[in-house]
Amino acid sequence: MNPAFEADVPSPCVMECVVHQGHGYCLGCWRTLAEISAWHRYSNAEKTGVLAQIESRRAAHSTT
Fold first, then answer.
1. What range defines the domain where residue 40 resides?
2. How many CA atoms lie within 13 A of 30 on its CB side?
3. Is residue 12 a part of any domain in this protein?
4. Rounded-to-integer distance, Cα 33 and Cα 58, Å
5. What whole-number distance in Å separates Cα of residue 5 and Cα of residue 54?
6. How many domains does the chain have?
7. pLDDT digits 0-9 by tens, 23-63
8. Cα torsion for 48, 50, 51, 52, to the nearest 10°?
9. What is the value of pTM for the model shown?
10. Is the pLDDT of residue 7 over 80?
């Protein structure tokens, strides 16, 4: 598929923006401030990589 026509990976933002002072991740989407601010510049491959990291972060910091 031509990257110019590739569907954009959607942002994981859930509009609950609170950055935890300890680990530095947003408690809504589990991204860092750097990832949040750069999301619109990331390629789909980079976005997919961040989404994979989010799952690991959630699991590592789960309280259940």
1. 18-64
2. 15
3. no
4. 16
5. 26
6. 1
7. 999 999 999 999 999 999 999 999 999 999 999 999 998 86
8. 90
9. 0.83
10. yes
